[in-house]
């Protein structure tokens, strides 16, 4: 492996949005079925990346969202409602993170 590609590979390890997991592995990690992952994708919660062979690939961030959806569905929440709740929670978390960064920058 060329030495100039190594830092990029190390960066991917820490990248929460890098599509590292196949559908089968992703489903196994969140204790769900591939059909469940397809359903949360169809509901708009996650959009997997496609490999060159057109296989779905998921990031750690997407798996956390899907795992949260599975928790809500297991508690009786309809999948479309669970996906909407999680989408709003995710947007709120991101807004709070950005707000905190802006406050820190302002205070410096």
From TrEMBL:
All copies of domain HTH merR-type, residue ranges: 20-88
What GO biological process terms are annotated to this protein in UniProt? regulation of DNA-templated transcription
Annotated Pfam families: MerR_1
Q: Which InterPro entries match?
A: DNA-bd_dom_put_sf, MerR-type_HTH_dom
Q: Which SUPFAM superfamilies match?
A: Putative DNA-binding domain
Q: Which SMART domains match?
A: HTH_MERR
Which molecular function term from Gene Ontology is one that the record holds? DNA binding
This protein is called MerR family transcriptional regulator
> Which organism is this entry from?
Streptomyces dysideae
